[in-house]
Structure formats: C-alpha cells, structure tokens
Amino acid sequence: MSHDRDAATDPRTQLDRAAALTASTRAAGWRWVRTYLTGWAAGSVVLVLAIGLGGTPGLVAGLAGWGALVAGGVAWVQRQGFSVAAAGRRIGIGAGLWAATYGVLLAVGLLGFAGEPAYWVPAALVSALPLLAAAWWPAPASAGATLPDVAP
Q1: What's the distance, Cα to Cα, between the start and end of the chain in Å?
Q2: How many helices (H) and strands (E) does the chain have?
C-alpha cells in the first residue's frame, strides 16, 4: 500500500482549490452588485429628469421606463445563481437612502421648481449618489476582493 496521494485527492490541494473558487465567486458577486446598483443609479437620473422636466408625458414615460428597468433588474439578479452575503444589506442600505433622497427631491421640486432645469439637473444627479456610494464603496475584507480591484 502506497502512502503517496494523488494530487487531485490531496486534502491540501482540495482546500486550496475550494479557497480559490470561493474567492472567485465572491469577486463575481461583488461585480454584479456594483453593476446592478450603478444601473439603478443611471435609471434614477433619467427618471428624475423625466418627472421634473417632462410634464405629464415625462412622468408617464419615466414611470413606464422605471417599471421596465425594475423588471429587467429583478430578472437579471435572479439569473446570477449566487449571491454575496453582504449584498442584501448593501442593496438595502443603498435602496433605503435612495428612496429617502428621491422622495425629498421630488417633493421639493414638484412643489417649488416644476419644469426648471436649474433644479432638476442637479437633483437628478444627487438622486444617484446613494446608489453609487453603495455600489462603489469597497467590499469588506472578508469578501476576498475589494470592489475597485474587480473589473465591472
């Protein structure tokens, strides 16, 4: 009986492979979180501009486009096949801060600045900030990769 182990069945080799696969999966997970939140931020800019500058047709078109973006985003996320443990928290925080920002911007804008680009263009950009911050804030060290080091 031989004490030599085949490299493929060696426990150390298997553990190294498992660690590499875990790191790769986490990096891919952070990549989709970044993509998802960045897409949401871009959609928010368009939505706020449509509502603030487009009158009733802009509101209708903006909300229809937003609905399509949300439906597409949900379908895309479900196809990812994996998740990052912190993704739900990160997306939740970004979404909550976005909702608060969006609500305040719309309330102020619709009550006092209807149709004024000087308000709505900066407001649209500000609406994206919570989502961009959530997308591009570095991943926790336990994630195996920081977001800035992972290609989109």
Answers
A1: 51
A2: 4, 0
User: What is the spatial distance between Cα 128 and Cα 96, in angstroms, rounded to a whole number?
Assistant: 12
Q: Which amino acid is present at 64?
A: A
Are 87 and 37 a contacting pair, CB within 8 Å? no
Instruction: With beta carbons less than 8 A apart as the criterion, state whether 60 and 52 touch.
Output: no
pTM of this prediction exceeds 0.85: no
139: which 2 tokens? 């991943």
In contact, 120 and 109? CB cutoff 8 Å: yes
Distance CA 111, CA 100 (A): 17
Can you tell me the distance from the alpha carbon of 16 to that of 120, in angstroms, rounded to the nearest whole number?
53
- State the pLDDT at residue 146: 43
The per-residue pLDDT for range 112-130, each reduced to its tens digit, is: 999 999 999 999 999 999 9
Nearest to 30 by CA among 142, 127, 115, 128: 142
- Determine contact, residues 22/139, Cβ cutoff 8 Å: no
Average pLDDT over residues 75-80: 78
